[in-house]
Write a structure and sequence with these properties.
27% of the residues lie in helices and 20% in strands. It is α/β, with parallel strands linked by helices. It has two domains: 170 residues, 4-Layer Sandwich (Metallo-beta-lactamase, Chain A), CATH 3.60.15.10; 103 residues, Metallo-hydrolase/oxidoreductase (Rossmann fold, 3-Layer(aba) Sandwich), CATH 3.40.50.
Length: 296
């Protein structure tokens, strides 16, 4: 509560525990010398034999980034996630040599049983494709866990939240709503992602030279908007930053990114000094080792 990151939720009934998400947080000016911050799992260590599954809502670092550090404490516990999140996770776990936890498919419309829990995922709108919330049906009632979401009628990927399922759950009765509340205290409403796409087009069309866009490496929808805007004005795109390069390849291989404009290798940037390239890079939050900081 009151912070961004370290998302890790625990639902427990008798001798069964399920976890939802397992994210990290990035340090601020009060935590000098710290690279990442992960959740406190003292209680999990005491009850690790009861942990039966990890459910992932989406593939952003603040929801999955701690998995390579915490899964070794939970050998054999399966991780359920949608297609894109599984692809991103498989790469991350391979990098950290975490091999004892199977990745299992779980998509909107599916339903699985884990001990006394019946899990029903539903689609939500977010800045990464395949984002999900969960209806967690328990012997004492239904908990609706939203994950990160935005009610956007014109999302970048064209897939809005599944309002029909939410309406059905509401009509059936809900014991508790565990909801994302990021910026809930701010007045007004959040504009559609289409506004961002139009802003990219305006900036790229007016800029005489290169345009550099910094964003999260896992913000696949935002990267697609950059590609679309660059393609409309016939500009080539380069991707800079190890994590973004990896995620772009994974998303492309899984069919979550399309390329209306040629993608050039970052090594080509220096040799194309006269071309009005669009460069997508990491470092939107000033991370010292990200692509934007290295450019500077």
């Amino acid at each position: 509560m009151g912070e961004i990151g370290k998302n890790l939720y625990l639902y427990e009934y008798q001798e069964t525990i399920i976890l939802v998400d397992c994210g990290l947080a990035f340090p601020d000016e009060t935590t000098l010398g710290v690279d990442i911050i992960i959740p406190d799992i003292t209680y999990l260590r005491e009850r690790k034999s009861a942990v039966k599954a990890v459910l992932i809502t989406h593939g952003h670092e603040d929801h999955v980034g701690a998995l390579p550090h915490i899964l070794p404490e939970l050998p054999g516990v399966p991780v359920y996630a949608s297609t894109l999140a599984r692809g991103l996770l498989a790469n991350k776990l391979k990098e950290y040599k975490v091999t004892a936890n199977p990745l299992r498919p779980l998509d909107p419309g599916d339903q699985i049983e884990i001990g006394p829990f019946v899990i029903e995922p539903f689609r939500v709108g977010h800045s990464i494709p395949d984002a999900m919330g969960y209806a967690i049906h328990t012997p004492v009632g239904t908990v609706v866990h939203t994950g990160d979401f935005k009610f956007d009628q014109t999302p970048a990927d064209g897939k809005a939240a599944d309002f029909a399922i939410l309406a059905r759950l509401g009509a059936q009765g809900v014991l508790a709503l565990v909801s994302d509340s990021t910026r809930a205290e701010a007045p007004g409403y959040t504009p559609s992602e289409q506004v961002v796409g139009q802003a990219f087009k305006s900036i790229i069309s007016d800029a005489p030279g290169r345009v550099i866009v910094a964003t999260f490496a896992s913000n696949i929808a935002r990267i697609q908007q950059v590609l679309d805007a660059a393609g409309e004005f016939r500009r080539k795109v380069a991707v800079v930053g190890r994590s973004m390069e990896q995620n772009v390849k994974i998303a492309r291989d899984l069919g979550y990114l399309t390329f209306p404009t040629p993608l050039i290798a970052k090594e080509e940037i220096g040799r194309r000094s006269k071309e009005p390239l669009v460069i997508a890079t990491t470092g939107a939050q000033g991370e010292p080792m990200a692509g934007l900081a290295k450019m500077a």
